[in-house]
Amino acid sequence: xxxxxxxxxxxxxxxxxxxxxxxxxxxxxxxxxxxxxxxxxxxxxxxxxxxxxxxxxxxxxxxxxxxxxxxxxxxxxxxxxxxxxxxxxxxxxxxxxxxxxxx
Length: 103
Prior knowledge:
Blueprint: H1 6-12, E1 30-32, H2 33-39, H3 44-52, H4 62-65, E2 68-72, E3 79-84, E4 89-90, E5 100-101
Antiparallel strand pairs: 1-2, 2-3, 4-5
């Protein structure tokens, strides 16, 4: 008989994995990686996981992960990499404003 690991059971039951952030980002908001790390408490590993799931963003260094624009995908603080801001990411000031890539 094959056993199922506890994380697999929790995932199947819809229980979110343990997250390291202090405050979840606002659902449907866009935030720079450095804002997620400093203002919300997201860890580099969480930023890297979000980028790894986005096929249009290449592998990035830890420093570059801070210049990615992330989309907040659910009310539980889940994030997805939206785009790598190669010219830099702009903090638009405050939780209610979406950050942007420098054009």
